[in-house]
Amino acid sequence: xxxxGKSITVRHPHKISIGDNVAIDxxxxxxxxxxxxNGITLEDxxxxxxxxxxxxxxxxxxxxxxxxxxxxxxxFSGSRVVIGENTLIAAYVYIIGGGHDYSRxxxxxxxxxxxxxxxxxxxxxxxxxxxxxxxxxTVGEDxxxxxxxxxxxxxxxxxxxxxxxxRV
Length: 168
Fold this sequence. Notes:
Blueprint: E1 3-4, E2 9-11, E3 16-18, E4 23-24, E5 29-31, E6 40-42, E7 47-48, E8 53-56, E9 60-63, E10 68-69, E11 74-77, E12 80-83, E13 88-89, E14 94-97, E15 119-121, E16 126-127, E17 132-134, E18 138-139, E19 144-145, E20 150-151, E21 160-161
Parallel strand pairs: 1-4, 2-5, 3-6, 4-7, 5-8, 6-9, 7-10, 8-11, 9-12, 10-13, 11-14, 12-15, 13-16, 14-17, 15-18, 16-19, 17-20, 19-21
């Protein structure tokens, strides 16, 4: 019951697990690269919208049951990103589980450490279009994140948060 659109790029397929009733739309990228990671896990009833990217850099991405990822979205993991069941992710959402150290001025940022603390979006959330969720954040269950929000700190369960930075 898995449907693949056209021109999908799959890198490191031995580290990608796909459940039942999963649809991956046209032009998506699933990249599970890494030396000691598990890769990408898509549980049952997942939809990944057109042009979306799931990319690991030695991290893991887990989409639990019934997750919808809107078109042109990206989920990146340098450690572990988990999207809880029944979560809706609108179009143009960026969930970025990693960053760059920039404490030294004697070497370029691109050559410094790349810390990653992970991201957890708990179950039953709705993340509005154009939202960015940064590394080290937990979005509590049954939470709505308004369109265009920048989530840089934890959001408690049963909340509605919006803005730059996102506030309850």
